[in-house]
Structures are given as structure tokens and as C-alpha cells.
Amino acid sequence: MGPINSENDNSDTEKLSLRQPLETIIMEGGFDRDVSETGSFFIADVEATYLGKLLSALPMPALLVDQWFTIIFANEASASSSSDAERLRGKDVRTLFLDASHGAKIGEIFQNVFSRKKLAIVETLLRLPNKKMWCRLHARRLRLGYERLLLILAEDLTLEKRQINLRSRHQKELKQAHDQLEKRVQERTAELMDLTKRLQQEISDRAQAESELELSARMIESSTEAILLIDVDGVILRANEAVAAITGYPKSRLIGQSMEFFQWGRRYSDLSQKIRQAMVESGEWRGEVWDRRMDGNIYPALLSISAIRNDKWETTHYVCIFSDISKIKQTQKHLQRLAHYDSLTGLPNRALFQDRLSQALVLAQRHDKMVTLMLLDLDRFKNINDTMGHGFGDKVLIAVAERLKNNLRTSDTAARLGGDEFVLLLPSMSSTHGAITVAQNILNDFTKPLTIEGREVFLSASVGVSTYPNDCDTPEKLLRNVDMALHYAKERGKNHFRFYSHEMNELAVRRQRLEHILRMSMSRDLFLLYYQPMLDISTGRIAGIEALLRWRHPVHGVMSAANLIPVAEETGLIVEIGDWVLRKVCDQVKKWNDLGFRGLRTAINVSARQLKQRGSAEAMVKILEQSFTDPRLVEFELTESVIMEDTEETIDVFQKLRNHGIRLSIDDFGTGYS
Q1: Residues 625, 562: one domain?
Q2: Burial class (CB in 10 A: 0-12, 13-18, 19+), 149
Q3: If residue 100 lies in a helix (H) or strand (E), which one and from where to where?
Q4: CA dihedral for 90, 94, 97, 100, sign (positive or negative)
Q5: Amino acid 644: pLDDT
């Protein structure tokens, strides 16, 4: 191991006088000085110096240690003889400590003394030749010649430790005696306290038992549930006030009566037997029963009967608890109705209707009967909501529901699917003639005005009809078929009924294919416009141009888009197509103006679905403004059917277009179609 610190710091040290007293040398740090005036000294001459003599005369162990922790001097007090002290020289001072790890820690402290010139005091167990001792080490750095050494003085703490141990033992013995005395006092006191506590507990238990009995009696009396105490023979011993409140019988009349006074088991012959059997097997029974009040009214009750047993597990009594659950039953019934009936009209909702439809088909199959399904939709009901408000519209729906029920048999079902759509289920029909009669009667009934809030309301309806087993054999197919029939009834001009036919399904498939073609054509830009001139017969000149929509068929080339327009109107794509046509026309008008063909008015066919779209007029005007097209050069052609439908809304749209200078005209007037 290298030296603790080999640095040379002669610059700030003073010379040491060995004649100073030992206490002054240790406490004031006088060792941090040269030993001689000449500055030369040999470690072997320590004993001959005043310091060596002084250390040898000390009654406590004294050691001098060099920078490598090697003992270079040990006085006789460090051992039992001078020869033992001589054997200490040359040893590592850290080996004198019993614990190696502790010795290393002491070594670190000594190293700090070498480095910082501070006095260190440490209490430890020191192992010297022929003895071990507790001591307090005083360590201080000093300089002998050119060598820096560590002076270690060991103050013997053996007597002090012995006195401390003796004092500790005496204190421990005194504490044990005190504890024993205190324990005997506590034991005697505990015996008295235990007797007192048992007496108090006995008094308290008796008072608590009486209090609990009183509390239990009050609890039973204040309970809203009826409680009866019955003996093993079935005789009523006690009853609370709730029994009288629920049944109407005073307690005085019930006490002493047999349990058979209550009529829980009389409505069901086997109920009493089940209760008795449960009492024998498990000692308890719980369930719903029906009982009769004193006034004769029947009410539902939730009944619970339990056996009371003693320590020998013998039944001594029965406790019977029951409550009136009339309100719960009413709530359940109300929730059941909300789950299966329309909250506005009171008619069965979709869930209940589908359940009845499934049952009707099962019965029809079993008894070889026909089931007729009718789907009814009010024509132009949206106008009523928009003009009169939804509250007024709700009253109209309620009146319609009443009319429908008046046209049906008790075995028939009228249900509301949602909005203004109703469905009629007619089971056990003998032929389609009966269904035709019902459908015609319903339409005839709708010709009569309804009086709502003092106003007459005229309605019409479209009806789709499908039958089992003629059309299909499952509820899902029957609903799908009747929906197709309703669609075709509306296409006939409303206020009609239409029976489903297999051709409708083929048309529906074809319509679905056309819708796919339509969407594909929009995404692939397969539409184009042809422009047809309109001549003035009197002059032979071109008076205007009409834009005609065409479709580039992948196989057959350019074709009329007439077959796609109805599908576009149904799907709503007509709005997107109409906007596309208007933009293309505006671009073409601009090109014609640039070529010098000014003042030519271009006519565009406008669909009814476009005009019904909210904000349609504003959208058309915006397209004209974005393309910088003069509105006077554009003319919108409308069919007469557009003008006749939703008159008020249509007039409003017309007025907005006219206000922006757009001209309107009727196309194919008198034909009823475009």
C-alpha cells in the first residue's frame, strides 16, 4: 500500500519544540513542525528524543505511525513488556482492530488526519499484545524531520465501560424489581377491574337486551312490510301495523286466527302444498301470491316465510313477511308497454309487430290459412309537419291510428313502424278479395277530412300489399315484398294500393343494377352534354339551345340517360348530377360568348328532387356566380308535376330564382311528364 499522503507542505509549517507539554502539543497541533533547527532527523532516534521520552513515560498506550500506516514506535504502556512493545513496531496499525472492516474505516479516518491536519477522536476496541481494551483514540499529525507521522494516543475506557455496564445492570435489576412490583399491583388491580367489568357488562347486557328488544319491536311496528309471528300450529301470535294497513283487517281480528285466514293458496290448489313442503325441507319459502283485502279487492303480494329454530334445531315459530307489490306490477306493466307499444299512438311498435307476424305465419302454416300484410305511408305528410308544426303532425298521426283500428278486426294488428309509416297484419284471410276490400276501405276512409284543432286536414295514403304463402314464406321476405309494393304504389301517383308481384323483384334487381351503373358513371365521368338548338318557327333562326344529358355506355356508345334519371332521383344523386350539368352549361355559355355567339339562352331540365333539396336555389345561384355567367342566359325547364307538388315550397324556390334573373319555363305542358 502506498503512502497516505506524500505531498510536501514545508512552506507554511513552523518548527516544533519538543519541550512543550503533551497536552499543548496534541490540542494545539504543535506536531506540525520540524523537530530540529537543522531540519534533519532519523526515525530510529525517536526514543532518544524528548518526544520519545515523553511518550514512553505516558501511562496510556502511544503509537507513532508513518504514512504507510506502519507502527514505528510504541511505548511500554502499549504492551505488558518492552519486548511486546517492540513487537508492535513494523506492524500495520489497522490490524490492531478486531474487525477488519472497522479497521479499514479507522484507516480512512487516519488518512483524513494526514491530509487535513485535524485532531480525530474515535472510540473502538483495540487489540494489543496480551490484552484487549476499549479505548478512545486521539490521532494528530506531526512532522519529524522531513517525515510526516501520526501520533495515536489510546485513552483506556475499560473502567468507564465497566462502570457503565455495572450501572446498566443495576438499572436493569431495579427496573425488573419495579416491573415485578408493578405487575403484582396490576394483577391485583386487574382482578378487581375484571370483577367490576363483568358486573358492569352483565348490567349493560341486560339493559342492551331490553333496549334491543324494544328497538326490534319498534322496527317491526314501523316496517312498511307486513310481519306475522306464527306458532308451529299455524296460529297467528303477533302482527305489526303494516298488516292492517295492507289487508284492511285490524290486528285484534288477526291475532289467534289460523294462517288459512289468508287466501294465499286458494287461487292455486297446489301452492299451499308447495309452501308446506318447502317448510319441511328447507325451512323457508319465497314467491308471489294473490291475496284478498278486507274490502274484497284482490292484490299481488311478495310473500316470504321462514322457520325460527332453537339451539336443538327444532322449529318453534314461523315469521311471515309480505308486501303489496301492486305499484311494482303497474310499473312493470308500464315498462312492458313502453317496450312493445308506440308511445305516441299506442299502437304496437316494430318489435311487438314482428313477434306477432312470426306467430301469425306459424299458425297460418299449421291451419293452412293466408296472412296479408299491408304497409301504409301517408302522402306528403312532411308538408303538414313543416307548415303546421310537429305537435300538430303528432295529433294527425294519432287520428290516423284510430281510423286504422276502426277498419280492422279484433284479430288484426295495426302497428306504427316509425314516422308516418304504418303496417297492418291480417291473419286468417281466406282469399285476396278480403285484403282488397280492406285496402280499398282504408283508402276510402282517408278521403274523409280529419278535424284537428278546429281545422280540416285532407290526407291520402299509399298502400303496399303482400300475402303469405302466395308471395313468400318468411317474415323478412314478406316485409321486403310489401315495401316494394308500397314503392310501386307511390310511383302510380299516390293514393293507390298495389299488390306485390314477382316482376317487382326483378325490377328491383334491375333498379339496383342501374344505381350501380349510375354511381360508376359519376365516378368515371361517363356523362356528357349534347346541345340541341331551338328554332323560332316564324324566322327560322336559333332562338335558344337545350342541354340534353347523355351517357357513354362502355359497349353501346352514347345513349340517352332517361333510364337512369328515376334511379338518380330516388338515390339523391340527381342533385350531384344537376350541379354537374349546370357547371358544364355555364362553361359552354362562356365559350360561346368568347366566340361571338352572345345572347343565346340555354335551357336546362331541373328535377323535382333538386328543387326539394334544402338551399337548392342558393346552390344554383352560387354556381352561376362562381362561373361569372349571366343568369339571363340560363333557363330552367320544369315539368308540370313539379309545380303541382309541395306548392308553397316550390313557389318559394321559384321566387328566389326569379329574383336573380333566372327564367323558368314548363316543359311538355299538358302531358304530365317530361
Answers
A1: yes
A2: buried
A3: helix 100-116
A4: negative
A5: 58
What is the number of alpha carbons within 13 Å of residue 637 lying toward its C-beta? 15
**612 and 482 co-located in one domain:** no
421-429 vs 542-553, strand pairing mode: unpaired
Q: Are residues 301 and 422 in the same domain?
A: no
Environment class of 628 (CB within 10 Å of its CB; exposed 0-12, middle 13-18, buried 19+): exposed
Strand partners, 238: 229
Last residue of a domain, one of 156, 191, 215: 156
> SS3 for 166-234, per residue?
HHHHHHHHHHHHHHHHHHHHHHHHHHHHHHHHHHHHHHHHHHHHHHHHHHHHHHHHHCCCEEEEEECCC
Distance CA 642, CA 429 (A): 40
For residue range 591-648, list pLDDT tens digits in order: 888 888 887 888 888 877 777 777 777 888 888 888 878 888 888 887 655 555 556 6
Grid cell 301452492 — which residue?
A: 271
Closest to 531 (Cα-Cα) out of 605, 594, 617, 596: 605
Task: Mark which of 132, 156, 180 sits at the end of a domain.
Answer: 156
Distance, in Å, from the CA atom of 276 to the CA atom of 270, rounded to the nearest integer, reads: 10
Q: Please, is 305 exposed, middle or buried when counting C-beta atoms within 10 Å of its C-beta (0-12, 13-18, 19+)?
A: buried
User: Which amino acid, one-letter code, is at 552?
Assistant: R
Q: Is residue 184 part of a domain?
A: no
> What is the number of domains present in the chain?
4
The model's pLDDT over 498-539, given as tens digits with 9 standing for 90+, comes to 888 777 656 666 666 777 777 777 777 778 888 888 887 888
Take residue 577 and report the three cell numbers written for it: 348530377
Question: Minimal CA–CA distance to 118: which of 127, 126, 130, 109?
Answer: 109
Q: Is there a contact between 328 and 382 (Cβ–Cβ < 8 Å)?
A: no
Q: What's the pLDDT at 35?
A: 38
Is 235 in the same domain as 311? yes
Check whether residue 300 and residue 405 sit in a common domain.
no
Q: How far apart are CA 382 and CA 389, in angstroms?
A: 10
Residue 365 lies in a domain: yes
Answer yes or no: are the C-beta atoms of 646 and 605 closer than 8 Å: no
Looking at residue 113, which CATH number applies to its domain?
3.30.450.20
Number of H helices, E strands in the chain: 21, 23
Q: Provide the mean pLDDT of the chain.
A: 79
Same domain? For 89 and 231 the reply is: no
Beta pairing class for 421-429 and 527-535: unpaired
Backbone angles phi, psi at 571, to 5 degrees: -85, -15
The predicted model scores a pTM of 0.47
Same domain for 274 and 369, yes or no, is no
Whether the CB-CB separation of 143 and 33 falls below 8 Å is answered with: yes
Which residues partner with 547 through β-bridges?
531
Angle at CA 490, nearest 5°, toward 487 and 493? 155
Provide the domain limits for residue 232: 223-329
